[in-house]
Design a protein that fits this description.
Layout (H helix, E strand, L loop, with lengths): L3 E5 L8 H10 L8 E6 L8 E3 L2 E3 L1 E6 L17 H4 L6 E4 L7 H11 L3 E3 L11 E5 L3
Parallel strand pairs: 1-8
Antiparallel strand pairs: 1-6, 2-5, 3-4, 7-8
Bound molecules: iron/sulfur cluster (2 copies).
């Protein structure tokens, strides 16, 4: 199976490093993104939703169809720039069918910890091969 991206939503801090790493690697214009980070909150960037004290705030990295599903470079060991540069380990990359891959190991670890898996719905028109894992707090 082709390598895919796995995102631990609970670990994502909304830092945008993944998005900026892609932009820097491909010298994208200021207003062009292959990946952006959506705030799940009150509708504005980095603002929590809900009513005090029951607030929530999290982030979903969203891959557009402009993403080239790249393999980074030799310097990134074939890992896409976005996943390679994620500082929290929220985004991992590998072959879902290879039990020794970072992808498969992270998936098993998170399933054991009670996380559930989901994908973006078709109407979001995002690229294929991206799975999210998340656990309620
Ligand atoms: S997989 Fe490659 S092209 Fe796609 S967002 Fe990541 S770095 Fe950019
Ligand atoms: S996936 Fe990683 S690099 Fe991207 S916003 Fe989340 S924590 Fe930052």
């Amino acid at each position: 199976m082709a390598n895919e991206i796995l995102i631990n939503v609970n670990r994502c801090t909304g830092c945008w490093t993944c998005s900026q790493a892609c932009k820097a690697a491909y010298h994208l214009p200021v207003d062009e993104y292959r990946l952006f980070v959506r705030t799940i909150g009150d509708g504005n960037i980095d603002e929590a939703g809900g009513t005090w004290p029951n607030l929530y705030l999290k982030w979903n990295p969203v891959f557009t169809t402009e993403c080239k599903n790249c393999r980074g470079a030799e310097s990134t060991d074939g890992v896409p720039y976005c996943a390679f540069n994620c500082p929290t380990g929220a985004m991992v990359y590998g072959d879902p069918d290879d039990p020794e891959s970072d992808y498969a190991k992270k998936k098993e670890e998170l399933l054991d910890r009670g996380y559930h898996m989901w994908k973006m719905p078709a109407w979001e028109k995002t690229r294929d091969g991206v799975t999210y894992m998340e656990k309620g707090i």
